[in-house]
Amino acid sequence: MIAEEIKSSPNGNFKLYQLCKNVVICQTATDPHGWGNATEDEPAFMVYLGCKKEEVEGHIRTFNTFYRCYWCEVRKPKYLKEFEAEIKIRGMQRYIDSHAFGLDYLVESQAGKHGQIIHFDEIDFDEYNYRTTGYMPKW
To answer: How much is the average pLDDT of 80-109?
Structure first.
């Protein structure tokens, strides 16, 4: 269930993609809310993580420490209804680097936790972008 589009706004300003069982991203063509992770080639996005209520504190600590994401909101599930809680995360970077984990690491680790096997290190960046976001750069 990689990059399955689950919802789109009526005017097409944003699209929601389910990347694995408990990770959904909301992508926008622009960055109207200042999420701070858009690049020249890739759109801005916000991450939603579904989890158990008792896992929330550990996830937020991990996002603050290893992902360098300090804006997390815990709420009743809106997009990942099969989970007890949904964490809305702003400002996550798309790729892991020497300073912080990224969306690629989150999807791979969460997919493994739920029995899905995804190895992003074995595919090229264009295929990775398509499989994780549905976005294909226009060359």
So the answer is: 92
